[in-house]
Amino acid sequence: MVQGTGASPGIALGKVLVIKNEEIAIEKKQIDSIEEEKNRFVEAIEKSKLELIEIRDKAMKEFGKDKSAIFDAHLLVLEDPELMSSTINRIESEKLNVEYAFKQIIDQFVSVFEAMDNEYMKERASDIRDVSDRVLRKLLGIKVVDLSVLDEEVILVSKDLTPSETATMDKEKVLGFLTDIGGRTSHTAIMARSLEIPAVVGIKDMSVSLEDGDFVVFNGETGEVLINPDKEEVNRYKGLKEAYENEKKELEALRGQKSVTKDGREVELAGNIGTPKDVKGLENNDAEGVGLYRTEFIYMDRDSLPTEEEQFMAYKEVLESINPRPAIIRTLDIGGDKELSYLKFDEEMNPFLGYRAIRLCLDRQEIFKTQLRALLRASMYGNLKIMFPMISSLEELLEAKKVLNEVKEDLHREGVDFSPNIEVGMMIEVPSAAIISDILAKHVDFFSIGTNDLIQYTTAVDRMNEKIHHLYNPFNPAVLRLIKMVIDNGHKEGIWVGMCGEMAGDKRMIPILLGLELDEFSMSPISILPARKLIKSLSYEEMKKFANKVMNMDSAEEIEAYIEKTFI
Amino acid sequence: MEKLVTISNESGLHARPAAIFVKTASQFNSQISIEARGSSVNAKSIMNILSLGLKKGDEVKIVVNGVDEKEAMEALVELVESKFNEA
Fold first, then answer.
1. Which residue of B has its CA nearest to A307?
2. Contact assignment for B10 to A310 by CB distance below 8 Å
3. What is the pLDDT of residue B87?
4. Stretch A176-204: mean pLDDT, rounded?
5. CATH number of domain containing B19
6. What one-character DSSP code corresponds to residue A295?
7. Is A522 strand, coil or helix?
8. Is residue A146 over pLDDT 80?
9. Catalytic residue list contains B55
10. Distance (Å, rounded) from C-alpha A301 to C-alpha A340?
11. Could you report the per-residue pLDDT of A240-272, keeping only the tens digit for each?
12. Nearest to A328 by CA among A520, A529, A535, A517
């Protein structure tokens, strides 16, 4: 068994096709006929252009504009006069073979892009490599496996798949991807998830150890890969595949249905997102709203603060796409642990206990007001709810609301429209906020319990510290008591209470949260349909009794055992 | 013929705007270059334009000379000032 990184869920069984892009070896050679060398170059460029036009049109038909735009960029590189003239000058002046001359010019450009400190430009470097490899393969006469014409169903194995490969392959014939390098956010992984093809990435030299025709089975979720498994293992995987497909069909049937228990208690299942692009995942998984939009991503991977306009565009896009369902947008939660080149934080002993999130925003009000202006303006385009992170006292909450009102008055004076009824709520992730939630509930329209940090702060455990990970336990009675306290205090003041930490999507935890009368569960989109299936199988009255028993238990161990017993 | 302009579209001279700029410049046979940050590059080369990494607010000088320099300058200035019709 080989272990890789599960990048796209699903079970795959099948014969392997290894894409061995022969290493492009370039030697430096003196040439005798400059004319001949120049003709070879022009011919290779023309052939590559024709190929790219064909690929672009195929990608346009299958994936639409945004996926085919990458090939327009590739074409532009091939039509670049600087690239052409500098290569030809090098051939003429130094009498070099075209492969060597061309490679030298390409490397210069790639190093310029790789030296730039922004993600987008680094990606352009890999585009240029993709194009130059295509031209060099033409010059060296290296044949490339044509994936658009596969005669049987196969699992594709390679070092990594390039945009042109995934765009041209015959999807019906591809059972799965296995690559040597890459992680969950590599190109192959993202394409696999959008094509719903199982994939495991980052399996060191997989493409070297496998031969065409080897039989492989793998699980795209766990990342387990078996090479030439025996009969018994093949049957086991066949069973897994069938179960997976049935489960998927069952979940499909839940699309468009309400999340309601057998005895009529309805709750809301929403999704957590980080960028406007994630909204597609909400629709695919039938989310009933955005329960948490983490706005930090707009501030990252750039070298200056995002403008009001840029933020307005991002919030507008999210609100419009999910409208009329609600979108809870959390204001900036950034601190020492996320470096921003343009926002210098002094060294802090404990960034999680430091100058961050609402504390930073209340101190640097120009940053906070820019975000609030963008949010208020975007509220015209959908059902916005604003949420403040990391509130630990009443004073902070009232101060944040005061700033929000000041911004409302500014916009009013400037004659800029914003929606009159925007719910304002807060995250409960600091224990002090949980303990005085009866007081805080009087000043907000809703709570959303941020359990990821609430558990860290309550049990004094850094979630990323492997050595003490066993202490970071959501079933710790102390955590459950705080959660119950917050829900009860919220309901006493007539406000609704949701949860946007990982716990909200954990199937062992959902029955307890239902029993504690949580109103909204916000999770990663992929967990929504399974959560709906679970909720529809439960009775609310029974869960209240169940939760009551759990709340009287003394340890996480006892609680987890009781859950195991009750639900297995 | 020379003219100073300020890049005012949100994403600067990246991606789509850079491609449009280069395609537009290449339609004219005048010699066109961009001067910014102390270097001057051929405006018809996507690689050079991208390597400048021009952002919103950067000021650049467009230098055009050739038989159709007037139309070329007009087209390029109009493009920049219309923020490449980004929303």
1. B10
2. yes
3. 47
4. 85
5. 3.30.1340.10
6. T
7. strand
8. no
9. no
10. 8
11. 999 999 998 999 999 999 999 999 999 999 999
12. A520
Chain B residue closest in CA terms to A109: B47
- The per-residue pLDDT for A117 is 67
Over residues A355-409, the pLDDT tens digits come to: 999 999 999 999 999 999 999 999 999 999 999 999 999 999 999 999 999 999 9
Instruction: Give CB contacts under 8 A, 24+ apart, made by A62-69.
Output: A62/A167, A62/A171, A63/A167, A67/A167, A68/A167, A69/B16
What are the tokens at A310? 């840029």
Q: Tokens 């961009």 appear where?
A: B34
Which domains are present in chain A? 2-17+160-250 (3.50.30.10), 34-140 (1.10.274.10), 255-567 (3.20.20.60)
Comparing CB atoms, the residue among A77, A116, A310 nearest residue B47 is A77
Q: Which residues contact A9 (CB under 8 A, 6 or more apart)?
A: A198, A220, A221, A244, A526
The residue assigned the tokens 């007037």 is B70
Question: Measured between alpha carbons, how far is A219 from A197 in angstroms, rounded to an integer?
Answer: 11
Measured CA to CA, the distance from residue A448 to residue A432 in angstroms comes to 15
Q: Taking a C-beta distance cutoff of 8 angstroms, is the pair A567, A511 a contact?
A: yes
Instruction: Give residues with Cβ within 8 angstroms of B34, minimum separation 6.
Output: B40, B41, B43, B49, B52, B60, B61, B62, B63
What tokens does B49 get?
């334009």
**Which of A265-303 are b and which e, b meaning 16 or more Cβ less than 10 Å from the residue's Cβ?**
bebbbbbbbeebebbebbebbbbbbbbbbbbbbbbeebe
- Whole-angstrom CA distances from A309 to A273, A314, A417, B9, B56 are 20, 9, 15, 11, 12
Beta pairing class for A383-388 and A326-330: parallel
Domain count, chain B: 1
**Which residues are CB-contacts of A218 (< 8 A; sequence separation ≥ 6)?**
A11, A12, A155, A176, A178, A198, A200, A224, A225, A226
Q: What radius of gyration do chain B's Cα atoms show?
A: 11
* Residue in the structure block whose two tokens are 């926002």: A343
Question: What residues in chain B have their Cβ under 8 A from chain A's Cβ atoms?
Answer: 10, 14-16, 19, 22-23, 26, 42, 44-48, 50-51, 53, 56, 87
pTM, entire model: 0.67
> From the candidates A124, A316, A341, which should be mutated to test the interface with B, based on the most B CB atoms within 10 A?
A124
Q: Are B85 and B11 in contact (CB under 8 A)?
A: no
For residue A20, pLDDT over 80 is answered with no
ipTM: 0.77
Give the domain range for residue B56.
Answer: 2-85
Per-chain mean pLDDT for chain A: 90
